[in-house]
């Protein structure tokens, strides 16, 4: 299944995507190093594009909709401190992701990737997303264990997270979380296109989860549906011992770590509830006059 026109696909394969094909053995170690560094650079560039695009989007949205702030009494003034940790975090993310993808391209993995098709792409992507959510939940729980919490403490200095908090983490925490992308291609025959798509989603959703403002509340984020939301992760930062998951809430529901007010809090940010609250406020204001 081609994602691009044939002429563009050929250009991509021969130039931009050369690191995703086996390196010519005649080039030796220098060829391998060049291809890996090229892939690493492309990964860093992709992460930076997501960082700037998503970060700018939420800065604008948050400024326009202050009523959607989740923690009304807390304002995070640590934005520049959070951004100062971004280079190290991005370096770790890019290393793990590029290493896994490069190993797959060189044929070093235990399984070969499936050819991209109408069924293999969605199936492998779905499996990978579910696996990463489980990985994230249990690594996150492990990092809250007292002997390891020192590696996670930096991230929790942001009690009221911002869109930039996603990369505010220690190098050890970053390595533990992102090792998933290094290991996955060794055991799952996921097409590289789907792995890239998941990583882009992971980056964007990680920033969404830390945005501090709930812009997209819907019934899909609460019982009986399994999806998480910005409120979901914001409550983790605000209350510490709840909501450890990433994309889904099912691990927290199963393990008893879901915040007891999660569903109700998310519902309060849904459009109908926001409009009702605004109407009540206007009504009270009119009576006061």
TrEMBL record:
<feature type="transmembrane region" description="Helical">
    <location>
        <begin position="83"/>
        <end position="104"/>
    </location>
</feature>
<keyword id="KW-1133">Transmembrane helix</keyword>
<protein>
    <submittedName>
        <fullName>Desaturase</fullName>
    </submittedName>
</protein>
<feature type="transmembrane region" description="Helical">
    <location>
        <begin position="116"/>
        <end position="138"/>
    </location>
</feature>
<feature type="transmembrane region" description="Helical">
    <location>
        <begin position="37"/>
        <end position="62"/>
    </location>
</feature>
<feature type="domain" description="Fatty acid hydroxylase">
    <location>
        <begin position="126"/>
        <end position="257"/>
    </location>
</feature>
<dbReference type="GO" id="GO:0016491">
    <property type="term" value="F:oxidoreductase activity"/>
</dbReference>
<dbReference type="GO" id="GO:0008610">
    <property type="term" value="P:lipid biosynthetic process"/>
</dbReference>
<keyword id="KW-0812">Transmembrane</keyword>
<dbReference type="Pfam" id="PF04116">
    <property type="entry name" value="FA_hydroxylase"/>
</dbReference>
<dbReference type="InterPro" id="IPR006694">
    <property type="entry name" value="Fatty_acid_hydroxylase"/>
</dbReference>
<keyword id="KW-0472">Membrane</keyword>
<dbReference type="GO" id="GO:0005506">
    <property type="term" value="F:iron ion binding"/>
</dbReference>
<dbReference type="GO" id="GO:0016020">
    <property type="term" value="C:membrane"/>
</dbReference>
<dbReference type="InterPro" id="IPR050307">
    <property type="entry name" value="Sterol_Desaturase_Related"/>
</dbReference>
């Amino acid at each position: 299944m081609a994602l691009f026109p044939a002429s563009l696909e050929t250009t991509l394969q021969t130039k931009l995507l050369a690191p995703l094909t086996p390196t010519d053995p005649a080039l030796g170690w220098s060829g391998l190093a060049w291809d890996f560094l090229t892939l690493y650079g492309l990964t860093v560039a992709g992460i930076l594009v997501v960082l700037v695009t998503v970060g700018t989007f939420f800065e604008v949205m948050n400024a326009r909709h202050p009523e959607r702030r989740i923690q009304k009494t807390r304002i995070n003034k640590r934005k520049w401190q959070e951004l100062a940790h971004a280079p190290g975090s991005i370096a770790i993310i890019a290393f793990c992701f590029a290493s896994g993808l490069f190993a797959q391209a060189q044929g070093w993995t235990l399984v070969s990737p499936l050819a991209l098709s109408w069924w293999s792409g969605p199936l492998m992507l779905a499996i990978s997303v579910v696996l990463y959510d489980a990985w994230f939940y249990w690594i996150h729980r492990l990092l809250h264990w007292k002997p390891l919490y020192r590696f996670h403490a930096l991230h929790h200095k942001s009690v009221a997270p911002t869109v930039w908090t996603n990369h505010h983490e220690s190098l050890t925490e970053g390595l533990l979380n992102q090792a998933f992308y290094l290991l996955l291609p060794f055991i799952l025959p996921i097409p590289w296109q789907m792995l890239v798509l998941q990583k882009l989603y992971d980056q964007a959703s990680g920033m969404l989860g830390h945005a501090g403002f709930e812009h997209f509340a819907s019934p899909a984020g609460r019982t009986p549906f399994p999806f998480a939301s910005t409120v979901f992760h914001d409550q983790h930062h605000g209350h510490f011992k709840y909501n450890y998951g990433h994309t889904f809430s099912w691990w927290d529901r199963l393990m008893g770590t879901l915040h007891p007010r999660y569903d109700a809090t998310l519902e309060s940010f849904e459009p109908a509830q926001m409009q009702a609250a605004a109407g009540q406020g206007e009504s009270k204001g009119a009576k006061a006059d």
